[in-house]
Design a protein that fits this description.
The protein is an all-alpha fold. It contains ten helices and no strands. It has two domains: about 1-65, no CATH class; about 75-155, Death Domain, Fas. This is FADD protein.
Length: about 160
């Protein structure tokens, strides 16, 4: 699988990959695979002649688990919009309060080098993805207040 990703992932980054989990994490971060897009994964599995895994992947998609609307953090979209419109250069301080790692933030900055707002939006989405159902608006408000961004916290509460 690592060999099949050589045109998707840089050589240096690919050399550091030591497990399948690391490979899939990179592919997810680069959005080569996603919950609603498993085409690349299916192609990789077919090319290594793992039809058994292809059928399991198709079954997983057909059962609706991939596109489950309950899995989507709709309730957080409004706070993300408010935060991204009101937090500027100090977005990394906020993300550190939310326990997003430096590596995750660096990857986002690398993916969106000239778009500060998009860096913040993607960081918040990464935080949501990592926390899953534990990602709460109250945590966002607490982190904003911890960064002395009380005006933004008040707007999120509204």
């Amino acid at each position: 699988l690592k060999f099949l990703c050589c045109n998707k992932i840089g050589k240096r980054k690919l050399e550091s990959v030591r497990s399948g989990g690391e490979l899939f994490t990179i592919l997810l971060e680069q959005q080569d695979i996603a919950k609603d897009n498993v085409v690349f994964l299916e192609k990789m599995l077919k090319s290594i002649k793992r039809e058994d895994l292809v059928s399991q992947l198709k079954q997983f998609v057909e059962e609706g688990e991939v596109n489950d609307p309950d899995d989507q953090p709709d309730m957080h979209e409004k706070p993300i919009e408010v935060i991204s419109n009101n937090v500027g250069r100090n977005w990394k301080m906020l993300m550190r309060k939310l326990d997003l790692s430096e590596v995750q933030m660096d990857r986002i900055v690398e993916a969106y080098p000239r778009d500060l707002r998009e860096q913040l939006v993607q960081s918040l989405r990464e935080w949501q993805r990592c926390r899953g159902r534990d990602a709460k608006v109250t945590d966002l408000i607490r982190a904003l207040r911890g960064c002395e961004m009380n005006l933004v916290a008040d707007k999120v509460e509204q």
